[in-house]
Specification:
Strand content: 35-45%
Helix content: under 10%
Oligomer: single chain
Strand order of the largest sheet: 1-6-5-4
Order of helices and strands: EHEEEEEEE
Radius of gyration: 22 Å
Number of strands: 8
Largest sheet: 4 strands, antiparallel
Shape: rod-shaped
CATH architecture: Sandwich
């Protein structure tokens, strides 16, 4: 049976996060203390379709890496903006961030993974490996 689950090392270890409470969530807004971008995974039978919401990222700032059975999507963004108007107001905003998500891709045909990025959404097609009919077949010796 194939599964497409987020990869978490040390998943049995509980980590204390002092910023994971309602006061910080209300102050920083929803999603600000989450692990990164949102991902949807759909099983269409022969492949998994992964869609990652990554608005505001340039295509060249997004990286998809495969290390054995771990697929990692990472992105970084640095933005500086300065505006001046005739009343003397100066607005200067800076935003910087990086995100990373990893997935266990055991059972995926790694040579056929395809990626596309459009309208702020990264689309990955992760074809399932064909099951080996010899793997489940065996002869039982009768004593």
């Amino acid at each position: 049976m194939y599964t497409m689950m987020p990869y978490r090392s040390n998943c049995n270890v509980t980590r204390y996060n002092p910023f994971n409470d309602d006061w910080f969530r209300a102050f920083f807004g929803p999603g600000s203390t989450d692990m990164g971008f949102r991902v949807d995974v759909k099983d269409d039978g022969s492949a998994y379709q992964l869609s990652a919401d990554m608005p505001g990222f340039d295509k060249d700032k997004i990286h998809v890496d495969l290390d054995e059975d771990v697929l990692t999507i990472s992105a970084s963004n640095n933005e500086n903006r300065e505006e001046k108007n005739e009343n003397g107001y100066v607005i200067r905003e800076r935003r910087s961030g990086s995100f990373r998500r990893s997935f266990n891709v055991k059972g995926i045909d790694k040579e056929k993974i395809a990626a596309a990025y459009e309208n702020g959404v990264l689309h990955l097609t992760l074809p399932k490996e064909a099951p080996d009919p010899q793997q489940n077949k065996r002869t039982i010796v009768i004593n």
